[in-house]
Sequence to fold (859 residues):
Amino acid sequence: MSGALAGCTRGRERRLNVYNWENYVAASTVPDFEREFQCTVRYATYGSAEELLAKVFSGNSGWDVVFPSNSFIEPMRQLDLLLALDHGRLPNLKNLDTRFQRPQWDPGLAFCVPYMHSVTGILYAKSVTRTPLAWADLWTDSYSRRVTMLDDPAEVLGACLKRLGHSVNSGNDGELKAARDLAVQQKPLLRAYLNEEVRDQVVAGDVLVAQMWGQVAQVAIDNAPNLAFSFPAEGFALYADNSVILRESKHQDLAYSFLDYLLRPEVAAKIAMEMRTATANSAARAILPAAQRDNTVLYPTAEVLARGEWFKALPGPVQRLRDRYWTEIKSS
Amino acid sequence: MKRFLPVYACAAYLFLYLPLLALGAFSFNDSKIAVWHGFTFDWYGNVFRNSALVEGMLNSLLIAVVATLFATLIGTLAAYALWQKRLPWLTGSLYLSLLSPEIVTGVSLLVFFQWMFRFLKLQLGMHTVILAHISFSLAYVVIVILARLRTFDRSLEEAANDLGATDWQAFRYVTAPLLLPGIVAAALLCFTVSFDDYVITSLVAGVNSETLPMIIYAMARKGVSPEVNALSVMITVGLGVLVLVSGRLESKR
Amino acid sequence: MKLRTWFLAPGALVMVGLFFLPLLIVLAYSFLSRGAYGGVLLPWTIDSYARIFDSLYLAILWRSVWIAAVSTALCLLLAFPLALYISRAGARKTLLLNLVMLPFWTSFLIRTYAWMFLLRDTGLINTVLQGLHVIHEPLPLLFNTGAVILGLVYGYLPFMVLPLYATLEKLDPALLDAAADLGASPVVAVWRVVVPISKPGMMAGCLLVFIPCLGAYLTPDLMGGGKTVMIGNLVQNQFTTSRDWPFGAAISLLLMGMVLLVMRVLGDKGEELL
Fold:
């Protein structure tokens, strides 16, 4: 603590620019950090991975710390956007869950620190006539068009691919074409393509079924007990959001401090409790109350997880192909 | 016919104002849904307590004021020059700029700034938004002032010249004062267009330049939020007052 | 004369630097290849333009033209009687005209949001209708093409009223009286006398409405729920999620080209009015 304070030579002119997913910090997380490290944090949020990439892609965006999903780590590294992390400045790294100490997208944690993780499944109102336990259910007419899918190419194509029995990371043109056709077929049955913003609409009963991330679903369920979450039978995607420091950052000291701050058990636990997220920090998880710690939507059992598949970074040509199919799906 | 037109006009005005009135009425509703529950000023209070909203408002104001100052100045001078001498390429491109779809203008400016920044080591931010706003508001100013100038009698300036005034003096002491109401009208138009812009701003904004429309857009996508209702009412009333006041000033001259 | 040049310089600089130059760069980008995660790379190619001829994108182009045309036509139909009424309203002309323009002064975004507030499933209209037991299930009033057209008509109605009013104001009421004296019914009188005279106003109004509708982005995005894709949305998509900048550049230029074409066709008459 005193070391941190000793590092502060100026007053509140010290700035840090953090760009994160919505609802990923507790109300007190950032103010506490600002107080402790005597700085001002500009904290803004985005609603989609695409939005983030579009902003930071130029290498000149002004952000210091951002939170890309695991499948973006490799591309961002290739585009030279990430700062190689000095573990010596992240003493709290040891608090990470073993599952995330050597993740497949960055085995040495050279560039990122896993932050929160979840799955993509189906959030639905229990009152529906046909309980959506599989992706295939979202292609039926049972929900009077009050269905939404995520506004994210990887997620929509992923669900379609899973329904066809392929990998969510497929690069095979034939498989992708079939997935695209499925998505186009589904479009008339959909209300819209929406990300987290649809949460309130599901809670209000406007939307009955939504492809949704587990963490967001949990918040919805907390607000409306008539909701439930299902892990689709055909399989589903796993993802983890990671904190990274951008190479363009002019505030690396504060950035390291922030990353390490988020790794503290009490800080991570507070966020997980208040925002109902699934933390990758096992020390934090250990101090959560039992109901939260063993919540099966946030921390699925190993059996359920076996049906899940991590999103992977895809090679350039495959990415181009998928982006093209996404344009076609959106414009059909 | 005599009866149809007034009835139709009433219906038309109702159509024009219904959404705004409904929005306004429900900004006082003590409930988040569209069912009347009671009267409250809470949502208005929430707007001011929301620091992101306040910051967005200040950003929007700053951008609008600076862009208006520059655009009005540059535009008035340019309109005067165009009044003296026709330059079809410039007038044509101003019309094109006016009618150009916002998405195209926004995208072209984004691409331009990104390309420039390779050499200049700058970032997207307030300055890029202000430059973008000056760029698209210029046409509005020129067209309003040019229209005004076309109703002027050129002989006034010629008389001034005959009496020994230089071109600059003729402009400064003869034409400009007469032009003042037009300049005010153009500035007002410029201000509202800039304050309201979403598409172009969202493309060229940076870390510290979130504007009010950007925040409203994000809130609108989420669903109904009475704070947005309250905010909308405040903006509408604010701009409405500005317009009425300037209209009064103009007619007084 | 020197003063003129000085006066012209800043304006010309802004136009060249912040309008033409960016468009030039867009032109250049449209002939390049896309990078895997956005941006442009070197081989020059006309791939992007070739792709436009895919039936999928031609359908979007056509849909945009169709929606813009319908919106413009509706605007014209709705604005005409209103403009006629205002032009004959005597002393209250300016007040009535200002009342039409006032919504225009408020934020376009806010006005669009206001309609969303009225039309959504849990919005005012559905709540009232359900409360009166006229319907049991909410009507799907939002997130479809109809809502987009409504949003466009509402947003651009003042742009149609203004030029119509400008021409109609010059109409001599004696003409209509003469037509009545000659036995024409009011409808015929309007059709044969008023409409031809108001042609320049109609052209200008159509110009001012059709073009923004063609390039509309916000309205289809918000009122259409992102499902009614028009050219504007397609362009935005390429610069964000689909990350195909060259294709986005090509479509932008295509849109500009269409705007120029419409300006040529409708513009000459309208420009005098403006």
